[in-house]
DNA sequence: CGGGTGATAGAAAGCGCTTTCTCCACCGGG
DNA sequence: CCCGGTGGAGAAAGCGCTTTCTATCACCCG
């Protein structure tokens, strides 16, 4: 079967303890001894037994990555860069493995996976995506996160607001400036002359939905205090899938209230919005402007290319990896906010001259 | 700290062995005893220590999922459905965790991750994406896969050809009918009247590239034995990214050899192809038809919607999960080929009447 | 009516590693 | 010249679980 530590020790003529120390560092080992052990490891092709290490050390090389759904590019890109950054540059470093868990955004699934990861003695956990803001769940989540962090496993909240955990614990938050991005996007639409701006928001109760909507409204209100209220009937809550955007837009069109622009919760929803508009015979951006959020790869290939807000997913993934592995110290306050950037493309233009349609 | 098996045993007034048996099944436990144990587990909120189980049982609940890159929708969708299907319907079932590893298609990374997973005593491994067909690597991979399977961890090859391992081992292969799909796509182009068909192929040496190209050429040859050779100068090898399609198309245009259609290695590449053509002032499908492969979600939102070949990624993910967990018996021969389907959309049309351009 | 014969439960031996705790040599200072 | 220090190595005790191997009981059949 597999080579064990003891065999390596025997081969090198030292005790198992010494081999362990050479492999894990943090304890002085004389140069000659170290060399002999390393050679034995090499010759025997020794690969440590992960579970045994985890059992003895009470922590493993596993890093849990909770996402709403990896099939969604937003999470796929985040998880991908995170996974890549988990493998450090140095060659001998212990390689962390990413355990990705699709929660579908469901609180129960989130907690269930956290339990599973705790049982696996995961060496860290990254919670990504908007948080369900519901007192009961936030409380339960905070308790779980506190417990994990207290047991030494760093927790990184990525793309969601911080949790009220004791400051001394290894819990970091990496946020996106969703609010600012939504604000600038709305400003862009206003500057183009739009006033009747529809908004296809994400699921209610989700932090991301709240932030983006807040930024959007703030911009409207700053331009004209009456605008937020005026646009209220043009706001629809939906899911984060393409079909949600499609359905919401059909509903909007059915209602008949005129609008000249639609801002969507994210790019995927925006493609659904665009499809519904096109199907209704409306031209983009001639008749109606459309904007998304996230700047997923799809944005540049839609027709027309989608105006959106870039969210630095790759950067976030790398940062989260560095934080969860402890390679990067926690920032003071534990919170890092990554900037978002308005990406103006072809899907937004001034409203039609003849007045607002439909 | 965490509740242990022994504590549950004490609470239920039985021995640890009995608790273990209730939890794992496969050994008769009297109804009353079982109930008492289950109640104790419930009351104490017991969660098994994964590493300890894995150490004692020499196998874990971890399932390795090797992908080229999760950020790529192809793999994201595959990994997502696979991960979802790993969590069985029943509630008490042991939940398998998916460890996703980005190999970037690099043989060395593939082997390195396999070693890591072996060290973790993974309960199974799924290798996805085209295989690098290089004797040395195939040999090394076969050896590794054989060893893992022999130690009891099922291995599933998904979207790649089978490996020559002993038939008795738990190794299954789930393939896509890439060749057939490419064949039908080429037939479609030929039926539209195209004769000068460019092909932006994937990286050389990859099984997927080979299969798709083979199907494509087969259709050309069947239509006119001289066609494959005639189209040879219009075939370019590139990567699987959008930029590869873009660059390859620019190169094709630069060469000046006329073509009326371009078939791309996959949808992502096709979007790059389309972008380059559009940039060159060519209309799709008016001047040049474009076709992709995979039928990723992006296909329906490009302008025009992309004609492509649907590859049943979700189905494959679910099937792979069932096979790797042993929930579904290995098919005879160990190989399952999933059908692909031609999806005709707006990006393909008859070639321009005036003759082939550019 | 006694010893098979199942059906259950317990004892105990690890699984392969980490990590105290101990021990040993050898060093320099008093 | 002796002794406390100190760097380096080993012994051994687990970590929490699975899994033989054994030990009990009932029973049941000849």
Automatic annotation (TrEMBL), chains A, B:
GO terms for molecular function: DNA-binding transcription factor activity; transcription cis-regulatory region binding. Keywords: DNA-binding, Transcription, Transcription regulation. Residues 3-57 form the HTH lacI-type domain. The keyword Kinase does not apply. PROSITE patterns: HTH_LACI_1 (PS00356), HTH_LACI_2 (PS50932). CDD domains: HTH_LacI, PBP1_LacI_sugar_binding-like. It holds the Pfam family LacI. PANTHER family: LACI-RELATED TRANSCRIPTIONAL REPRESSOR, LACTOSE OPERON REPRESSOR. This is LacI family transcriptional regulator. It comes from Streptomyces roseus.
